[in-house]
Amino acid sequence: MKNVKGGRDGRSRIMDGALRLFSKDGVSATTLASLRDESGVSVGSFYHHFASKEHVFGVLYAETLDMYQEAFLAELRRHEKARDGVEAIVAMHMAWCGDHPERARLLITERPPRRHEPGGPEVAELRRAFFRRVAEWWRPHVEAGLLQPVPPTMCYVLWLGPAQEMCRLWFAGAHQPTPEEISALSRAAWHSLRQPTAEPTD
């Protein structure tokens, strides 16, 4: 078992260890024994904080999703113009993934917990509140004839799908995205989401 410094509670050590292992090996390949060893906690300490490995994953996923959504919404609120907001979010997404690679891998590669699984209700509520806030920003631009009235799933795919694929290549070590490529992804998102009647420069 790893030695750990005093003063850090067991829950934080478990969460940190889980983030490292889940990012490196994936949730399914991480054993409870390896998680305890990575975290430096005893069996009793682990079960004092969590009921299972899946419980750790659910809590960690919800925490990470909340972090990402807060960064997303903070960036979106900075922009009043439709094109500025759409393009800025793509750049923010790439920057956030670069700043938080372990957490980004978790969101990109792992299936979110379902409603009946640990963390599932929290994730569902986070998504509900998140999409409501995005819609509040989106709706006036639809009414102004600038953005398409697309449902949430299609909006996500058109907005960040290509950027997500770029991140997969990045994390796999296959390609390092350049600033020019990120700008191209941002422009592509705008052209995918703008209404046909909207001027490309709006």
Automatic annotation (TrEMBL):
One Pfam family linked to the record: TetR_N
UniProt keyword annotation of DNA-binding present: yes
Positions of the HTH tetR-type domain: 8-68
InterPro entries in alphabetical order: DNA-bd_HTH_TetR-type_CS, Homeodomain-like_sf, HTH-type_TetR-like_transc_reg, HTH_TetR, Tet_transcr_reg_TetR-rel_C_sf
Keyword set, alphabetical order: DNA-binding
KW Cell division (keyword) present: no
UniProt DNA-binding region: 31-50
MF terms (GO), sorted A to Z: DNA-binding transcription factor activity; transcription cis-regulatory region binding
Name assigned to this protein: DNA-binding transcriptional regulator, AcrR family
Upper lineage: Bacteria, Bacillati, Actinomycetota, Actinomycetes, Streptosporangiales
